[in-house]
Amino acid sequence: MKILIAGIPQYTANYEHALTLCGADFDTTLYPADLSSYDRLLLPGGGDIHPSWFGQEDQGSRSVDPELDRLQFRLLLGFLQAKKPVLGICRGLQIINVGLGGSLIQDLPTADGHRFDGRDQLHTVRCSGNSLLYRLYGGTCLVNSAHHQGLGRIAAGFDVTQTAPDGVVEAIEHRTEPVLGVQWHPERTDRFPPHTGVADGGKLIRYFAERM
Question: 141 an active-site residue?
Answer without folding.
Answer: no
